[in-house]
Amino acid sequence: MASNFIQTGKKIVAIGRNYAAHAKELGNKPPKEPFFFLKPTSSYVPSGGKVEIPRGIVAHHEVELGLVIGKKGRDIPAAQADSYVAGYTLAVDMTARNLQNKVRKAGLPWSSAKGFDTFTPIGQVLLNKDIPDPHNLRLSLAINGEIKQDGSTGDMIFRIPQLIEHVSSIMTLEEGDLLLTGTPEGVGPVEPGDKVLCALKDAQGKELLKLEFDA
Amino acid sequence: MASNFIQTGKKIVAIGRNYAAHAKELGNKPPKEPFFFLKPTSSYVPSGGKVEIPRGIVAHHEVELGLVIGKKGRDIPAAQADSYVAGYTLAVDMTARNLQNKVRKAGLPWSSAKGFDTFTPIGQVLLNKDIPDPHNLRLSLAINGEIKQDGSTGDMIFRIPQLIEHVSSIMTLEEGDLLLTGTPEGVGPVEPGDKVLCALKDAQGKELLKLEFDA
Ligand SMILES: [Mg+2]
Ligand SMILES: [Mg+2]
Ligand SMILES: [Mg+2]
After folding, report:
1. Which of A53, A108, A163, A165 to mutate: most B Cβ within 10 Å?
2. What is the Å distance from ligand 3's center to B139 Cα?
3. Confidence band, pLDDT 50/70/90 cuts, at residue A9
4. Which residue of A44, A209, B119, B204 could cross-link B43, Cys pair, CB 3.0 to 4.6 Å?
5. What is the ipTM of this complex?
6. Reduced to 3 states, what is the DSSP secondary structure of residue A181?
7. Could you write out the DSSP letters of every residue in A42-93?
């Protein structure tokens, strides 16, 4: 069941640089085709929990719309992608930015920079019927009451069906897998002691989901 | 149970460049500390199966000793690492080398280059009692009867307890996770139609495990 994906899911596939303004703020060009990395499911921490920031790590927040996969699929055509989505959630792709910058320069994998325990705070699941248009939602993140990220899922460079088509052309998606769709601009550090509050709202400003954690 | 890890395991953690001669053959220096990447469990294919090589991909074989994790652990000290190993297996870390070279230059994640479906051929599990010394084994791989890799696990740069300590300092290891320990020299392409045969032998030359697949 989709609601149980934190326990049962096997992988987290996270898309990089899927919002042009975010790519730019880190000095990157918008990608010509989607790319992704894997995060381990051992990095989940449910809303209300605590993100642990390891000593020496500069940990950035990246608030993202998550898709919970509802059934197994491979080489899924974009036109059929919707039927593989069981629901939507709100997640933060915590990133060890200093370590990521180091491995990027060295051409090394991103897995450690993205994969620390508690580096994927995760909210409840909303079923498809509650999300009439996943490309018309607002994603926000505030630290200690100050808004840091506030973007629209309408600004994704590659939209959800394309993402599912691309990822499933490389690896089979399975029930309970999570697909993170990229972060809007405004990423920055989370410091020990910070209180972080994220929200997913519809186009009318109605709050659909909340995700909060302490660091 | 360890024997069921292909179905129940959640992640594959694969160590890079853990044999000096292999690091050198790809033009890399031996690393000063271990590094790793994640492969999805959707990439498993059991012995006797077929590795699919996607169009345009140069797929290299990397035969490796695999450790199946037997219990959940985090920040595992090297001195206690043995008790977290449920068993040993033989695996091939298939790698899209041309894609990996491209993403390395661009500072992008390795996940797609390592994560295609069928890119982790995997053997049976041997329990600890059958492997008196995991650092005194021979790993070999032959294509169409010709030996391509034949190395000793004694040549690992970072030994198993250090690998477990390092990985578990970043992410919790869970029952059924697989840790791949790196490949000896001799990597090269597998072409469609090839028959690949791998063996794990003890120091006396006795065959402990076999792994075979077609491409
Ligand atoms: Mg996984
Ligand atoms: Mg992200
Ligand atoms: Mg390898």
Report:
1. A108
2. 13
3. very high
4. B119
5. 0.96
6. coil
7. GGEEETT-B----TT--EEE-EEEEEEE-S-BSS--GGGGGGGEEEEEEEE-
